Amino acid sequence: MQMKRTPELTHLDSTGRPTMVDVSGKAVSVREARAECRVRFPADVAAQLHDNGLRSAKGGIVDTAIIAGTMAVKRTHELIPFCHPLPIDSCKLAIDWHDPRTLRIECTVRVTHRTGVEMEALTGATVAALTVYDMCKALSHAILIGPAKLLGKRGGKRDVGTLS
Q1: pTM, whole model, 2 decimals?
Q2: Are the C-beta atoms of 128 and 37 separated by less than 8 Å?
Q3: Beta bridge partner(s), residue 40
Q4: Is the confidence at residue 81, as pLDDT, over 70?
Q5: How far apart are CA 22 and CA 114, in angstroms?
Q6: CA distance 106 to 30
Q7: DSSP assigned state of 68
């Protein structure tokens, strides 16, 4: 019978100090992650956004959020201290109504590298959500962001969740 290993934090060295994980010994492979974040509006704001085709005084909400999310994916290593800079192969954001009051933002990121892209997908989805908030806050400050969650990842030691 095989004993189950207790998970360990990977960003601590043997003395307990923070450190970047050394990925030099890992195999290069295709790694992909998919994350989502939701933005929930008060009913009157959602109705106004539906009527305006998701446009605000600042411009197209969805287009701006996609651009911001893509930029965030490419700069995740500048925001999260121990993330590796990665040559992103693909970044796709999809934004649509989940229900009459809630936008669902999904970010899928792919790379061919030694480390995964979960943080990049989560960063892309959440920054896109923050951008939606920024573009709509003149209508209400009662807009809710979240939850943000990893939907799936493939590549590396283990696959988690689903990617489609």
Answers
A1: 0.89
A2: yes
A3: 102, 144
A4: yes
A5: 10
A6: 20
A7: H
Give me the phi and psi of 64, to 5 degrees please.
-65, -40
Pairs from 86-93 (Cβ < 8 Å, separation ≥ 24) = 86/111, 86/113, 86/115, 86/117, 86/120, 87/111, 87/112, 87/113, 88/117, 88/120, 91/120, 91/124, 93/65, 93/66, 93/69, 93/124, 93/125, 93/128
Token couple for 115: 């480390």
| pLDDT at residue 158, as a whole number | 80
What CATH number was assigned to the domain covering residues 29-153? Answer: 3.30.70.640
User: 4 φ, ψ to 5°?
Assistant: -80, 130
Six token digits for residue 137: 């806050």
Report the pLDDT averaged over residues 60-72: 97
Active-site residue set: 134
Q: Please give the structure tokens belonging to residue 54.
A: 């998701």
Quote the tokens at residue 46.
């959602």
For position 26, what pLDDT does the model report?
A: 86
